[in-house]
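LAB NOTEBOOK - FOLDING QUEUE
OPERATOR: T.R.
BATCH SIZE: 2
PURPOSE: Compare the predicted structure-token outputs for two unrelated chains run back to back under identical settings.
PRIORITY: normal
REVIEWER: second-year student, initials M.K.

ITEM 1
FIELD SEQUENCE / FIELD STRUCTURE:
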Amino acid sequence: MRLAIIGTGLMGASVALAARARGDDVVGWDIDPAALAAAVERGALEGVPSLADAVQDADLVVVAAPIAQLPAQVAAVLGASGDATVTDVGSTKAGVVAAAAGSPRFVGGHPICGSESRGAENATASLFDGATWFLTPVTHTDAERHRLVHGFVSDVGATPVAIDPDAHDRLVAMTSHVPHVLANVVANQTGEARVEGHEPLAHAGGSLRDMTRVAGANPRIWVDIFLDNADAIRGALTEHRRRVEQIEAALEQGDAGFLARWIGEASANRRRMLEREYPDPGALQRLRVHISDRPGVLAAITQALGAERINIEDFELHHMSPERGGTLQVLVGGEGEAQRAAALLERQGYSVVVSPVLDE
């Protein structure tokens, strides 16, 4: 199949690499010549000089432009691409579906994956492995076009899920956009505060670091997302405000029962979320390993655990400072395996704390 990529940043170049891995002929174009050059250098695609050149003779066109440019780019591609099937990878869907103006050749799409890195130089074909990839066919979408995109998404390792465009935008407001809003709120509130002369950020704990991991994300991307999905985000924030007021009332009344039920409900919901990622989330153990700030420490730990055939389900590094080093959090399945990993690392001089993920 001949595939055209319009927009060659991280997402577009990753789609291109995944398509090439399955044997597709991939060309691409970007309004930014430097972004296109980076994708070509990465080996993701063959660059062409114009949008028209990219979509000529294409079987499938994937539009990976920024949100603010996406509706216009989709309309331009539909106007220039003859009989090609057209999809996109934008994180909001109602606006771009409207821009397609009822074309039966358009199938909206949104892969739920990404990276804190940017640019084609960080693209990878494995970005979509195991990811949900929303598709938003509507009543006038041609069924064969939907099947084509559905098959492509499956072939690159993702799981296609059909959803109404408006429902999609309400869903991602809750699962992605509002968490970004709240991470920024917490980071800014903490950063602006002083408590009797003390700066809270100077004494941040792991919970603050965890909750604000996505704070300050690229404003060129996130301002457009917030504005494009403003109604759904405002609706989700209204519900969030109602729930915060419930907590305020419980604290004022000393209602320990409500708070206990509230925490229990959150624990059950978190378990449901983790069950999608891990076969037995109840068995997950977290190892917190204090490490120094010197090159090679992370590689040494992962190699040591690998040599003992201890499977790492996930890991994350929290850096404190050059003087204090940081904390490596490692997820291991099973209490026995976690204790074996802790003993190995303690013999090598590391301080390790083990705790169940779902009981924290």
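ITEM 2
FIELD SEQUENCE / FIELD STRUCTURE:
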Amino acid sequence: MIAGIIGATGYAGAELVRLLAGHPNIEKLVLASVSFEGDYIERVYPNFLGRVQTPLVKPEAVVAEAEVVFAALPNGVGEAFAKTCVEKGTPFIDFSADFRFDDDEATYTAWYGKPYVHPELRKYSVYGLPELNRSRIKALGASKTAIIGNPGCYPTGASLAAYPALVKGIAGPGTIIVDSASGITGGGREPSRSFHYPECADSVTPYKVGAHRHTPEISRNFDAMIGKPGQGIRQVIFTPHLAPMNRGILSTVYIPLAEDWKVQTNRSGAPRPPVKEVSEKAAEIRSAYADFYRNEPFVRVLPEDSIAATNRVRQSNFCDISTHLDQTGTTLIIASAIDNMVKGAAGQAVQNMNVIFGFPETAGLTSIPSSF
């Protein structure tokens, strides 16, 4: 099969080139880059020397030849290409926010400052978190007119962390807090002061506090997971942080427990229940998480003595999850780790392609993580 990438020289696009070059069902890559048109991908990224000797062409050439098109483009740019792909019957997998909100144009406009260019395309689109929407992705993909809104990197880690708690009734009413730290590749390839080495090395910094664009995506996912999409019943406080590392996102999610899942205080009325009771309840919740994700190839629920860490998922499509309780036994704390360039972007896009075309879902994504 011929796969095309528009925006192949950005960080996410280049990571997609790396993954697809090793995919057993991909015979040829067609790559486009406005910035480097006419050059070769291995001249832009020398790590591809001798492996991917592919010229960089116009985006229109990618759409004309490819049997699946990936778009690693800024928000508001890809709709015209998506429209052509729909007319041609070519699945289109988009990395931007343009197709993440289905027909909720008001939310998209409020957070991204622009309306849909082609609102009619939303009848062909589906939010591409496979663990949440696998059946919809597969059904739409069968028509070959599918548009996949690849999830944001932060929402991927946060959503997978909270999913079992929301579905199984472990989560009670109240605010969910999501604190996430991301590597600097999340800011893209274009240089800026915020991502200049002296500015971000040896420092962890929160940014866009209370106003990050991924907040409504996380909130919408939480609502969908409990079966009440669009009702906005979950308040989410999301704070991203820039961490001095190239890759990875570590999310810590705090969820108030439902009454039935809380650890009851001991008979003496002490505010802190016995450690044994907290430990037993933590084990019960961990077991519920493991059972929920037992058939998911890319979600690993860690054993009791392990805590999720970004270095253990590097260059892989895994999401590692560890579950914990606070000392009072009333709040669930989940840590999730992903590689923001793989499960947070390119790897998830390949996973979506596999679902659409009926390939093994792990095809091209079987590499063991590098821990150093």
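REVIEWER COMMENT (ITEM 2): The first strand starts at residue 2 and ends at 6.
FOLLOW-UP: none requested
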